[in-house]
Amino acid sequence: MGDKKKTTPEVVEMEKIVGFAKRRGFVFPSSEIYGGFGAVYDYGPYGAELAKNIREAWWKAMVQQNDNIVGLDSSIFMSPKIWEASGHVGGFSDPLSECKKCHSRVRVDHLLEDAGVFADEKMTEEEINGLLVENKEKLRCPKCGGSDFSQAKNFNLLVQSNLGNFTGDWDKEPTYLRGETCQGIYVNYKNVLDSTRVKVPFGIAQVGKAFRNEITARQFIFRKREFEQMEMQMFVHPDDAMDMYEKWRERRWQYYLDLGIKEENLKWHEHENLVFYAKAAWDIEYRFPFGFKELEGIHARGDYDLTQHAKFSGKKLEYRDPKTNEVYVPHIVETSVGVDRTFLAVLTEAYVEEDLGDDKSRTVLKLPKQLSPIKIAVFPLLKNKPKLVEKAREIYDELKMQYMCEFDDNGNVGKRYRRQDEIGTPYCVTVDFDTLETGEVTVRDRDTMEQERVSVDELQDFFTKNL
Question: What are phi and psi of 372, to 5 degrees?
């Protein structure tokens, strides 16, 4: 116990994370028995628990711990006019090209990025095609290695649906699966204001699915066609917007440190070329296995969103200050992060391979306890001793009423410890023959591997203090 340990380098190989995630029941390729379905993934038993805990940690930090932020759960299907007002129908697109050798389609910005060339989001098709020509010798198809590509064309990312259309002309009057969750917040801003006691400044938080017609599957769950966002939109007085913005930048950075992310694995990235309505935009980037990439975006959006929806809907979305009677359209400060990207970040951060000496090693997920899929595992020392199994079951049945627990009697105790280490379980409780005599069990700590004897009667207090 307490052996001196050596750890692997900070950055884990992507292949190792992907293989581990499937093998231990965290993430499965969607529709795998049919050959898979590009850029879509399913969360397995432990992954579903981890994702749930990530949502709950974010909700607690956003809604539960703030007096002026409330929650919302808006619909995935919304009026198509919302997406016209937001600019998604006309301008929500990525540049698409085709490899002339294998005919696979690729996103041009990704193609250029892989070649060390970075395209501005606001570039026209003509400018993008200019980059394609200039850098032709550097470009390589990710599928076949070819270097000859068709001209780029913009490809809209909204996913169309034929919901409620029985004429067969659904492509002419389509509805959409929402491309982001924040529009549901904007169009409910007035409902929340009128039905609750909130006053500016106040925020609306939401966790929900969004859909994008991504052209190519890349980087595991970092970029998916069906993904989940955690977004908070803060409605503020125009004069207070930038102060509020800096406050939330600071708070969101600290959130990841509190979540167990090492500060050296985080960095800020400022958007240099802002969309016309934005006042500021910074990303918190995380050092994923493929390099630093966006984890969360924090944006000062001005009054564009409410102004657009007021224009397209014909409804007034102004705010009247109850004390001063001043009337204005609130500005919006946004924080936006994906469940999936947070999942990949904490999985990468927590994955450790330890050399224990004497040719022994272990793989352990050193997840923050609040995020661990299983909080406590309970073992009988031997599965063929009915009294040990009965006592272990009794303890398990009591603890599972408060904590997510797992009962395991398969194999020797050492192998069971290793299995629980791999899925990030903070504590293991072992019932042995002494338990039947003294009423004490062995509680083993995941990170230190140290063990201590704890009375069964004191287990609840022990875990209340330590979980």
Answer: -55, 130
State the angle between helix axes of 14-23 and 339-350 in degrees (0 to 180), rounded to the nearest 10: 100
Residue type, 19: G
Residue pointed to by tokens 């960095």: 267
* Strand 202-211 versus strand 69-72 pairing type: parallel
Question: What amino acid is encoded at 363 in this protein?
Answer: T
Q: Answer for the pair 261, 367: CB distance below 8 angstroms, yes or no.
A: no
Q: Which CATH number fits domain 93-156: 3.50.50.60, 2.120.10.30, 3.40.50.300, 3.30.40.230?
A: 3.30.40.230
pLDDT tens for the chain, residues 1 to 467: 334 444 444 568 899 999 999 999 999 999 999 999 988 999 999 999 999 999 999 999 999 999 999 999 999 999 989 998 998 886 666 777 878 888 777 877 778 888 887 766 666 777 778 888 888 888 888 778 888 888 877 767 788 887 766 666 656 678 889 999 999 999 999 999 999 999 999 999 999 999 988 766 678 999 999 999 999 999 999 999 999 999 999 999 999 999 999 999 999 999 988 888 899 999 999 999 999 999 999 999 999 999 999 999 999 999 999 999 999 999 999 999 999 999 999 999 999 999 888 888 899 999 999 999 999 999 999 999 999 999 999 999 999 999 999 999 999 999 999 999 999 999 999 999 999 999 999 999 999 999 999 999 999 999 999 99
Angle of the 339-350 helix axis to the 45-59 helix axis, nearest 10? 110
Pick 374-466's CATH classification: 3.40.50.2300, 1.10.150.240, 3.30.2140.20, 3.40.50.800: 3.40.50.800
- Beta-carbon contacts of 29 under 8 Å, excluding residues fewer than 6 positions away, are 22, 36, 37, 41, 42
Contact 162, 168 (CB under 8 A): no
